[in-house]
Amino acid sequence: xxxxxxxxxxxxxxxxxxxxxxxxxxxxxxxxxxxxxxxxxxxxxxxxxxxxxxxxxxxxxxxxxxxxxxxxxxxxxxxxxxxxxxxxxxxxxxxxxxxxxxxxxxxxxxxxxxxxxxxxxxxxxxxxxxxxxxxxxxxxxxxxxxxxxxxxxxxxxxxxxxxxxxxxxxxxxxxxxxxxxxxxxxxxxxxxxxxxxxxxxxxxxxxxxxxxxxxxxxxxxxxxxxxxxxxxxxxxxxxxxxxxxxxxxxxxxxxxxxxxxxxxxxxxxxxxxxxxxxxxxxxxxxxxxxxxxxxxxxxxxxxxxxxxxxxxxxxxxxxxxxxxxxxxxxxxxxxxxxxxxxxxxxxxxxxxxxxxxxxxxxxxxxxxxxxxxxxxxxxxxxxxxxxxxxxxxxxxxxxxxxxxxx
Amino acid sequence: xxxxxxxxxxxxxxxxxxxxxxxxxxxxxxxxxxxxxxxxxxxxxxxxxxxxxxxxxxxxxxxxxxxxxxxxxxxxxxxxxxxxxxxxxxxxxxxxxxxxxxxxxxxxxxxxxxxxxxxxxxxxxxxxxxxxxxxxxxxxxxxxxxxxxxxxxxxxxxxxxxxxxxxxxxxxxxxxxxxxxxxxxxxxxxxxxxxxxxxxxxxxxxxxxxxxxxxxxxxxxxx
Lengths: 406, 223
Description:
The complex is a heterodimer. By secondary structure, chain A is mostly helical. Chain A has one domain: lithium bound rotor ring of v- atpase (Four Helix Bundle (Hemerythrin (Met), subunit A)), CATH 1.20.120. Chain A has 17 helices and no strands. In chain A, helix 1 (5-45) runs antiparallel to helix 2. Chain A is flat and about 65 Å long. In chain B, helix 1 packs across helix 3. Chain B is globular. The N and C termini of chain B lie far apart (49 Å).
């Protein structure tokens, strides 16, 4: 059976709508469930505060749901899009649009649940701080929606830019890769930027006097945890806005898809890892407010080192995008760049989380004993991170071998 | 939906090069600058022991940021305070501009956040060289091992990318979703609520995040 181009584009729009709201519903539901569960715990602890806790839970859930609502908006637009006369590449762009929005909403939805849950618990423990906790929850969960907003920006661009100037080959891989890159990269950062928001809210309930220092640290920690998602967005922009019409279709398509996967996947780990570090930093400042200087510095150093695997992923993406390839339809010519992207992408996940954990516990200890051991602990952290990064370096080496030797 | 991809341009040919300006961004930036200058003049014109309303507003802002800068920087680098508060005022007012019908945020154009990101990058590194000396500054790049130098350099450059794309993505995303929802529902309730959330709330948070990160970058370089 042969279908017209319009049918294919229409089918892709429906499929994209399904991906957008299907994936997009995962995170928000998790986050809201976590908030509701903790609201029940909070009411169990302090039944007298049940009214304010319930109200706070509903507000927190509403903000955590906004990533899901973005996904719903994109899905509706995709489902009712006018596809008349659209070129074939539009089908891939719409598919990419749905994936970008759906995947990027997972992390932000789940991350938004942490501050909502901690605010409920905090109100139960320390009722007078109620107003401050709700405000901080709103700020924290709004910040953790940022990765979903990045996904949404790319999804809109994929949907509404006229792609007819790009050739179908290898343009289809560019638009699909753009969606995958920003969507996957936002998962880790969404969860990661929710973690400090949660612990900062909990910390404020314990130590209301240090609220300003805690909130400043939370914002810095969340913002740095979003850097991996930003790499994903930058790769998506490069895939979308570079003119691929002069590149040979084979094997460029594999390189473009590989570029999207490399940064997208490798960003997941550092996003979550940076979240762990920032979480402990906010908690540490709540415990010992005087330690905020060394804690913030160590947090930033630890997060920067934990980001190195996504920087490797970004590097492999740049090589895949901008080193010209000779036209060849041989299998090796296209499998090698695609495998390089996948190898670096998956290889970056574990080290990112592991190094983030190393930094998290270092920050925790420095907060407790800033005077005595901060230099020693920072040195141990850097050595530990370097060792846990070695698997990421193996992936980088294999990716480079695949790109340049084979 | 055409507003999304339509960028108004001014062209200028200078010495054989064709320069392209985004007229909307320029005009909106000038509006923001005019507002900041007017505020500066208003709040300092008649300084008195019993402050007037404008002076009070100015004092509140200065004292709030004074504390943040004093916490982050040591005595030798506190002269960066005017820069920090100006960055905040400019970006914050830029983000607020989108709430007013007919105006748009200059920060919605990637060039504006990028300009501020690059500015902050150079100032941070200048402050680092000035405080620590060139040798100690360069030595930072070969920590913990000499072969980490390329990674450290990419890491520094990635700060510019991340700080500016974060602001751009948030503001652009907010204005897109307001545009689309207004287009879909023509409602009286939903678009204003979205404007309040993305324009006022997210705009303020992101302006603060941008300012704090600029401050932290200076603080990390000078320690």
